[in-house]
Amino acid sequence: MKVLGVNAVFHDPAAALVTDGTVVAAAEEERFSRRKHGKSPVPFATWELPEQAMRFCLEQAALEPGDLDAVAYSYDPALAPQPGEDLTADEWEGLRTLYARRAPLFLRTALDGLDPARVRFVGHHVAHAASAYLAAPLGDTSVLVVDGRGERASHLAGHADAGGRLEVLAAQALPHSLGLMYEEVTEHLGFRRSSDEYKVMAMASYGRPSFLGQLRERVRATGDGGFVVEPIDWDILVPRLDRGEDWQPEHADLAASVQRRLEELLLELAHWLHARTGDRDLVLAGGVALNCVANSRLLAEGPFERIWVQPAAGDSGTALGAALYAAHELGDEIAPMSTAALGRGYSDDDLEEWLAAAGIAYERSADVAEEVAEALAADGIVAWFQGRSEFGPRALGHRSLLADPRSQENLERLNDVKGREQFRPVAPMVLAERAGEIFTGGPLPSDYMLFTHGVREEWRARIPAVVHVDGTARIQTVDAGAEPLVARMLAAFERRTGVPVVVNTSLNTAGRPMVDDPRDALECFGSAPVDLLAIGPFVVRRRAAAARAQEAAAEVPA
């Protein structure tokens, strides 16, 4: 079966293609449109069809729209509120449902040759759930989905058997929502809701949970797998911040309090679920599953032995989940997801054409891994563009900014390059076989950067750039079998420095989606103080860096 999944309802419009039970391609529309999270000043523009992402997915498999057996849309208007129902204060509720009902017609226009009868609706939270339990390399598993909202709920808890059948055990009705609560405090602290929640998570490490008592009164579990989130007047707790306004200690305290209460609620939900299923394993999805601090506490203190999180756990991942769910319903056996590198990739010839057209000096490296390691060891910042782009919000060694972790100043340098707040951490990329020597806690390996780990005391002074204020790091482990080029670069860096860790953050600047195609890479390199661009087998040097390289070469005896 050939099934295209589509998310085009809330934010992060995306498409994913599953062929004969295997994920072939997946991409967010923002990587093509360059509008982060698919947002624009017009609210309903967030419902745009991911036309470019859909087109890419089909091209990746050399398919035409008429070849598709199904198009799975990750929102079911039959489950949505009906006229007169007021589940939230969302003024666009009716238009959202109308849009979804007309999706088959929109899709027929966007995908010329598609039979609208092949469009099928998959409930939002079922799509989230399927993106995890069908993609995970597990058998029987418990499933927990927590996000802002779906059609009329904000949460799903259930059990999936090894045959891919889902039993829903609990679902929390709106307006009660842990995700919307976190969005509200994100906006109150001067950030963009449905976009900057990770900034609140980072800020929380700088504060004390001094408002936890008040939040426990308003936000509590109900004992039946659900919860209550009563309205909270955030202004009573701390003054509201405008965008870009400096935060004070009490704002960090509020972030810490909300983060702590979220973790407590997730633990209660997990214990309730485990008592019903007795499963060893848990899979997570929904936007809240991108909260790596909460994931780590859930693993450390919760009842499940293993936790697996789908790397595009937010709304973009519902495109993948809808496709997997429909493929399974049509009889396909689903293969576990083996990589997040599901986006666009380019041949060496394609890349050289882009470089030649840009009219800049470049060279083909004899060994790009060694050359990048040399630049990093000399304290250069490297833009790394290799292979297919990642699906989801994390840079996992395909579209990354790299730096030397031994210098504390590199945290500030990278935040300056990206134009973002200095309280935000950057992540370490580490060889999988070396991770246990340096980091504690959390799952190992940790391929998708969705958990935090402690940094061993003896290593904190050696890699200060990647140690957050609370002594943790959000690591990505690199397996040489899955990522041979990245592993060779890390090994080359260790030979030069004795450290098998490199700083890894996403290749973008503030407010822009992650770099995806060669034009994006060249624009980012041209506008940011980066020393070297490693794009496929080619390297492009900043003029000053090129001069230093020539001087060094001249000093080497013939």
From TrEMBL:
Q: Does the keyword Transferase apply?
A: yes
Keyword vocabulary terms for this entry: Transferase
Which GO terms label this protein's molecular function in UniProt? transferase activity
Instruction: Note the InterPro entries from the entry.
Output: ATPase_NBD, Carbam_trans_C, Carbam_trans_C_sf, Carbtransf_dom, DHBP_synth_RibB-like_a/b_dom, NodU/CmcH_Carbamoyltrnsfr
**One Pfam family from the record:** Carbam_trans_C
* Domain annotation Carbamoyltransferase: ranges: 2-71, 117-324
Decide whether keyword Hydrolase is in the record.
no
The Carbamoyltransferase C-terminal domain sits at 373-542
PANTHER family recorded: NODULATION PROTEIN U
Give the UniProt family note. Answer: Belongs to the NodU/CmcH family.
Q: What is this protein called?
A: Carbamoyltransferase
The record lists the organism as uncultured Solirubrobacterales bacterium
